[in-house]
């Protein structure tokens, strides 16, 4: 399987500093920032700094260091936003992928959404 990464996608431009973002957390391999159109009181996007299209691409080709860094960043974001289960009420993590997953931006991103009850996960098709 080969993945084609488009370096002109909007998150690549954020990573290059060409457009601004509201950073929540940053580490060596990972950036987290507020979604520009939040679906809930907390809506943060966590992205790897490397050029990965999707979660499956990232999990196949990212280095161990990148994967570890990304995974730890999830905890940092949940602590910073207060949705973690220690002090908050939880959250939903979503990785929309490809056409069926309705992914708009072709740079892997994990949505962390919370601050309200999220309802059922996915509606059944008719
Ligand atoms: P997805 O459908 O999973 O690809 O979601 C892409 C997300 O990126 C949407 O929730 C958008 O609101 C968000 N988004 C698009 N452009 C920006 C931006 N410049 N800064 C922050 N979030 C953005």
Summarize the structure.
The chain has 126 residues and is α+β, with helices and mostly antiparallel strands. The protein is built from three helices and five strands.
Describe the structure.
The protein has 126 residues and is an alpha+beta fold. The protein has one domain (10-114): HIT-like (HIT family, subunit A, 2-Layer Sandwich). The chain contains three helices and five strands, in the order αβββααββ. The chain has a five-stranded antiparallel β-sheet with strand order 1-2-3-5-4, covered by helices on one side. A hairpin with a 7-residue loop joins strand 2 and strand 3 (42-48). It is globular. The model has no long low-confidence stretch (mean pLDDT 96). The structure holds adenosine monophosphate (AMP). Adenosine monophosphate is lined by residues 10, 19, 21, 35-37, 45, 96, 102-105.
Could you name the key traits of this structure?
globular; alpha+beta; 126 residues; binds adenosine monophosphate; 5 strands; HIT family, subunit A; 3 helices
The CATH class, by name, is: Alpha Beta
Q: How many strand segments? A: 5
CATH superfamily: HIT-like
Choose one word for the global shape.
globular
Helix residue percentage: 10-25%
Distance between the termini: 32 Å
Number of helices: 3
Main sheet? 5 strands, antiparallel
Low-confidence stretches are none
Topology as a string of helices (H) and strands (E) = HEEEHHEE
Strand order of the largest sheet: 1-2-3-5-4
Radius of gyration: 14 Å
Ligand identities? adenosine monophosphate
- Going by CATH, the architecture would be 2-Layer Sandwich
Q: List the quaternary state of the chains.
A: single chain
| Strand residue content | 15-25%
Q: Structural class per helix/strand content? A: alpha+beta
Q: How many structural domains in the coordinates?
A: 1
What's the average pLDDT?
96
């Amino acid at each position: 399987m080969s993945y084609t990464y488009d370096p002109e996608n909007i998150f690549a431009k954020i990573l290059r500093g060409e457009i601004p973002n509201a950073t929540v957390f940053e580490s060596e391999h990972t950036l987290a920032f507020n979604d520009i159109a939040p679906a809930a009181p907390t809506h943060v996007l966590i992205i790897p700094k490397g050029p990965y299209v999707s979660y499956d691409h990232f999990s196949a080709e990212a280095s161990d260091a990148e994967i570890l860094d990304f995974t730890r960043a999830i905890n940092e974001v949940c602590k910073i936003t207060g949705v973690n289960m220690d002090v908050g009420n939880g959250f939903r993590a979503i990785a929309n992928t490809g056409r069926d997953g309705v992914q708009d931006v072709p740079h892997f991103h994990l949505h962390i959404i919370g601050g309200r009850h999220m309802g059922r996960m996915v509606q059944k098709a008719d």
